[in-house]
Amino acid sequence: QFLQQTEHNPRARRLAFELVARADPATADQLLAGMLNDPSLELRRDAVQKLVDQADQALARTNLAVAAPLLQTALRSAREVSQIEGITEKLKGLGQPVDLQKHFGFLSEWKVIGPFDNTGNQGFETAYPPELKIDLTAEYDGKQGKVRWQDYVTTHKYGMVDMNQPCGKLKEVMAYATTDFYSDRARAVELRLGG
Asked: By C-alpha distance, which of 120, 125, 173, 126 is closest to 145?
């Protein structure tokens, strides 16, 4: 019961799972089937791995009709990079290449502007014009002359935006990026940003 209550601390739930697995491995195995979207990344990883193992068994029997859907389901729930890459390689081997940008909903089309001065990290305390108002037709004084918004499309499989590409490989500078995302309906969303 404790394990199935997802509001508990993920590490405590992981300990509960390990205790269940020691006492009753069959029950632990059944519980994993319902943890593909578990908030505990460790439990989710194990649930995904269970599907990958099942797909590997199907592949060993050359049962591609079973293996491919298992791998697709595993990929939808996977969050760990090494696991994602392993699954995508297996799918590629089955003739089903995966567009990770599209699959995970990464935003790839951006407008970027820069570089602006960030000598001694002072730029972080400075509100440059793009921070005050987004005017995609504007031109501003940058660190090395005039700067204007430019289109940038990332081709990185995980949607990373490398600001060195449009702005140059410079030290002590900063830049801005903006994009729009349109939903076809009102709904709750989760936006994730890394750096």
From this structure: 173
Phi, psi of 116 (to 5 degrees): -110, 155
The closest alpha carbon to 105, from 22, 179, 14, belongs to 179
Helical H runs in the chain?
Answer: 10-23, 25-32, 41-60, 64-77, 81-93, 100-104, 129-132, 164-167
Residue 91's contacts (CB-CB under 8 Å, 6 or more residues apart) are: 68, 71, 72, 75, 97, 98
82-110: pLDDT as tens digits: 999 999 999 999 999 999 998 888 999 99
Which portions of the chain are predicted below pLDDT 70? none
